[in-house]
Specification:
Length: about 525
């Protein structure tokens, strides 16, 4: 096999040690490696020790396992106190099993989006909405498999930006990196707002303003973020998180069953008057509830064997699809075309609402910690690569400082922008399709080209169709979010406004919820 023209000619070298000076495990005797310089990790010049081009092609063809512990990434522009070059071990320790990663994935991917699915059923009907949930899950699985195949070749990649650098070069790496940072920042802000809302809903008789509840939630979530250094450290929290979101949804379902279905409720199998634009808008919302690919490389980089990543769907898949179908179908059956966009809105004030809100709050806090961990690690490596895996007091202090900065920045941005929720939807519609659909497909296509294993015609048809679908999702989602932003422009308050909608037990803030509660007299409750 000839050398690839896009890669520099190199000579085989022996593999250096991995991070923290430990010996590299699991090398195959006689395997060829080469040293390549790339303008890679976070804009710095990298020396990458990896399999030779021939070995990479062999890897793709044989489906062999190549661990990222078998690679050394060093920022060659850095020197220690004696003036000597030092390797920077930026890859995290590989301790996690695929079972642990499955629970982490569930906690991150199954976020607040699941609470809106009954409304999507109201917009589509039983059959279209259920089929879209199944189709989007298989799309998630397929793109995850593609990312595993890419990492088999470029096993040193610990983020989607790294993979983009190894395949397409610095310009697209930088573009992908900026998109990732913006998306992570706004997702964290959205999480903090929801944490504040669920905290206030848990203690709905204490009338604190939304920014105050969000500040309290930020302190709790930020403390956890500063103390948990790696994603696999959140495994125990994630197991509990899976139980809490199940409990929160279960409480609402029990309440709906007990209250029964009203005689005038209509739940058609196919929504009446459904047109193409409405279908695509609802499909976009359902797709975003499955969008976690932007952090799959980070999850793989902490696994004992990243080639087992697709096994995570043995746990995550059945749970995710089941809870999505359950929330959508049950909410739609009992509320019909009037199904709420927030599942907990089906509860009135009372003990059940307190417990469901508290369970949801815990689940969203864990989601914040997972996404925050990804952003903090990116920034920590950016500013202090030598301390990325340093567990000394200085390394821990640096991590805590980054975690505090990320939490504080997300809190300020989320509360300073009056239309932050809609802005987050706009940015998600604009950035998530490139990160979670276009990038995995394009990375896979380019990697197959680099290892001289061309795609068959049917593979081109599938992958180019996905690219076209991703572009269409991005355009339609952006158009819808811009329209909604414009139509609601007059309703926005000032920065750090005291919002209480659906949270305080007053008629002014929560008239509909008080009506659900039964026994509340609006005139007796102070506004």
């Amino acid at each position: 096999m000839s050398s690839l023209p896009s890669l520099p000619s190199t000579a085989p070298v022996s593999l250096a040690t991995s991070m923290d000076g430990h010996c590299v495990p699991g090398l195959i005797e006689g395997q060829e490696f080469e040293s390549v310089q790339r303008s890679g990790l976070f804009g710095k010049l990298l020396s990458v020790d990896r399999e030779s081009v021939t070995s990479m092609a062999r890897s793709m063809r044989s489906n062999a396992t190549y661990r990222s512990a078998g690679y050394s990434i060093s920022a060659s522009s850095y020197k220690d106190g004696s003036g000597k070059d030092r390797d920077v071990g930026v890859a995290p320790p590989q301790h996690a099993s695929w079972v642990a990663i499955a629970f982490i994935m569930i906690s991150e991917v199954v976020g607040a989006g699941v609470l809106t699915l009954s409304q999507k059923y109201a917009e589509l009907g039983y059959v279209p909405a259920s089929l879209l949930i199944l189709a989007n899950f298989f799309l998630l699985y397929y793109t995850a498999w593609q990312m595993v195949e890419v990492k088999k070749v470029f096993a040193a990649a610990v983020s989607i930006s790294d993979a983009m650098d190894y395949t397409f070069g610095r310009v697209l790496r930088t573009t992908c990196h900026v998109i990732l940072l913006i998306n992570l920042t706004f997702v964290l802000g959205d999480y903090l707002l929801l944490i504040g809302k669920s905290l206030g809903s848990t203690i709905y008789n204490i009338h604190l303003c939304s920014p105050i509840w969000t500040l309290i939630g930020s302190a709790i979530a930020g403390s956890l973020l500063c103390s948990l250094r790696y994603l696999h450290s959140t495994t125990a929290l994630c197991v509990v998180s899976v139980l809490t979101i199940s409990g929160s949804v279960g409480i609402v379902i029990v309440a709906l069953v007990v209250n029964g279905r009203a005689a005038d409720v209509e739940s058609p199998i196919f929504a009446e008057g459904l047109d193409f634009m409405q279908f695509m808008q609802s499909q976009s919302a359902i797709y975003f509830t499955f969008s976690g690919q932007f952090m799959f490389f980070e999850l793989m980089s902490e696994m004992k064997d990243f080639t087992e990543f697709t096994k995570t769907f043995r746990i995550a898949g059945p749970f995710q699809v089941s809870i999505y179908l359950l929330v959508g179908c049950v909410g739609y059956y009992y509320k019909g075309t009037e199904a709420s966009g927030y599942f907990l809105d089906n509860l009135g004030f009372g003990p059940a609402y307190r417990v469901a809100s508290a369970l949801l709050c815990f689940h969203i806090i864990v989601g914040f910690v997972i996404v925050g961990n990804v952003l903090c690690r990116i920034l920590h490596i950016q500013f202090s690569p030598f301390r990325a895996n340093d567990l000394s007091w200085r390394g821990r202090l640096e991590w805590a400082a980054v975690g505090f900065g990320v939490t504080a920045t997300s809190f300020v941005i989320a509360n300073a922008i009056p239309f932050f929720d809609l802005l987050t939807g706009l940015i998600g519609g604009l950035l998530l399709p490139p990160l979670c659909l276009l990038a995995p497909v394009l990375l896979y296509i380019k990697t197959r080209h680099m290892v001289e294993r061309p795609l068959a015609i049917w593979e081109w048809v599938i992958n180019l169709s996905l690219v076209a679908f991703g572009v269409m999702l991005m355009v339609i989602s952006t158009m819808e979010n811009v329209r909604e932003l414009i139509s609601n422009w007059s309703t926005f308050g000032a920065p750090f406004s005291c919002h209480c909608q659906g949270m305080w037990d007053t008629c002014e803030c929560s008239k509909k919820r008080i009506e659900y509660s039964g026994g509340f007299n609006c005139s007796s409750i102070a506004p």
